[in-house]
């Protein structure tokens, strides 16, 4: 990958779903990236203090009603979040040819490239991403080949960020389980090696933000996704009968949303909520998502205690990997694809 400016237009067609547009080189939104962006509504996300004695029931209500909320007192140090953000800017501000040295393989999950959900949409997205699991040692060496100190700093901060996000997410999962009047014995696998993906998202400044989309409407495949979006808005959740609810950033908060697997686990009680990220013409926005799922060998199915004769299990058991694979085929219809078909009476 020796060449300098490597724009999407010049890339072979099989790379169009992997190599992002060279956003700095365009003054208008090209046809390939032109979206009709529905305007947002008014409204806000519930803000929950994790130290509040009522946190449990507030989380349950938020997960049942919208499927998303914001948290404070989440335990992740503010200073660490700022450092993760700084390193995220360092990465995305690298020249395009350098970022392409850490390109994700077309069927891979980790590395640099367009968001994996690009394949759901006919129009291209105004964003780029970098995902990792644990410390991205090899990718850091490709991104900063002549700066070993920067490689170490990047890896250390990303590792620490994942460690703290994991602890906070596990605390919220515990509250969720208790809020459903269940105990650790009902979800023994939560104590095992849960899997997680750390995804850095970048939304370059867009000359015509009403004609482009950062991340198109999607639900996450995870159990829970926890997002740090710093001081720039862009993330919006679709509320039933409300429309796109923008999340105005409050310093130090994290945004949490229910993913498809948690919706399956709760037999549909918790909503896996559609969300999107819009772009703007003044700020380069970044966000950091901790995408938390079950251990790789655990089949997720509706919890027995949440089902009975009147509430039969709505979904078939599935492991995360198979669910994610099905999602690349069925997109936002994947939950329906895993629905139990009602047996006919004899
Ligand atoms: C295990 C997962 C979770 C995926 C799909 C698959 C691999 C890559 C993940 C992400 C990471 C970036 C945002 C997202 C929306 C995307 O485009 O790719 C995520 C998506 C999801 O949460 O569904
Ligand atoms: O950029 C954001 O705020 C949203 C990111 C997101 O939805 C995701 O990573 O799945
Ligand atoms: Fe998402």
From TrEMBL:
Identify the residues that the record assigns to the Fe2OG dioxygenase domain, covering every copy. 193-294
Instruction: Return the PROSITE patterns for the record.
Output: FE2OG_OXY
Instruction: Look up keyword Ribonucleoprotein and say if it applies.
Output: no
Q: Decide whether keyword Cytoplasm is in the record.
A: no
Q: Which GO terms describe its molecular function?
A: metal ion binding; oxidoreductase activity
InterPro entries from the UniProt entry: DIOX_N (IPR026992), IPNS-like_FE2OG_OXY (IPR044861), IPNS-like_sf (IPR027443), Iron_ascorbate_oxido_reductase (IPR050231), Oxoglu/Fe-dep_dioxygenase_dom (IPR005123)
**Alphabetical keyword list:** Iron, Metal-binding, Oxidoreductase
Similarity-based family: Belongs to the iron/ascorbate-dependent oxidoreductase family.
Protein name per the record: Fe2OG dioxygenase domain-containing protein
* Protein's organism: Canavalia gladiata
Organism phylogeny: Eukaryota, Viridiplantae, Streptophyta, Embryophyta, Tracheophyta
């Amino acid at each position: 990958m020796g060449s300098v400016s490597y724009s999407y237009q010049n890339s072979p067609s099989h790379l169009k779903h992997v190599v992002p547009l060279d956003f700095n080189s365009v003054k208008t939104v090209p046809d390939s990236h032109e979206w009709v962006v529905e305007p947002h509504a008014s409204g806000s996300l519930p803000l929950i203090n994790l130290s509040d004695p009522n946190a449990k029931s507030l989380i349950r209500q938020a997960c049942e009603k919208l499927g998303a909320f914001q948290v404070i007192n989440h335990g992740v140090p503010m200073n660490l979040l700022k450092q993760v953000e700084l390193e995220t800017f360092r990465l995305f501000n690298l020249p395009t040819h350098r970022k392409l040295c850490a390109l994700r393989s077309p069927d891979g999950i980790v590395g640099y490239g367009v968001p994996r959900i690009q394949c759901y949409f006919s129009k291209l997205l105004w964003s780029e991403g970098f995902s990792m699991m644990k410390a991205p040692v090899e990718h850091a060496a490709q991104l900063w080949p002549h700066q070993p100190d920067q490689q170490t700093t990047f890896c250390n901060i990303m590792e620490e960020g994942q460690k703290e996000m994991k602890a906070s997410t596990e605390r919220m999962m515990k509250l969720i389980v208790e809020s459903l009047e269940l105990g650790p014995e009902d979800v023994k696998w939560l104590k095992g090696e849960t899997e997680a993906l750390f995804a850095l998202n970048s939304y370059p400044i867009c000359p015509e933000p009403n004609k482009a989309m950062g991340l198109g409407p999607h639900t996450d495949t995870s159990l829970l996704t926890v997002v740090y979006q710093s001081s720039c808005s862009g993330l919006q959740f679709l509320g039933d009968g409300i429309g796109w609810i923008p999340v105005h950033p409050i310093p130090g908060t994290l945004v949490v949303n229910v993913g498809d697997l948690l919706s399956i686990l709760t037999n549909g009680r918790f909503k896996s909520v559609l969300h999107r990220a819009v772009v703007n013409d003044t700020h380069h926005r970044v966000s950091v998502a901790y995408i938390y799922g079950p251990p790789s060998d655990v089949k997720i199915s509706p919890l027995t205690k949440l089902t009975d004769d009147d509430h039969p299990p709505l979904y078939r058991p599935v492991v995360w990997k198979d669910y994610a694979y099905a999602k690349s085929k069925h997109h936002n219809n994947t939950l329906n694809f895993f629905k139990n078909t009602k047996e006919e009476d004899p």
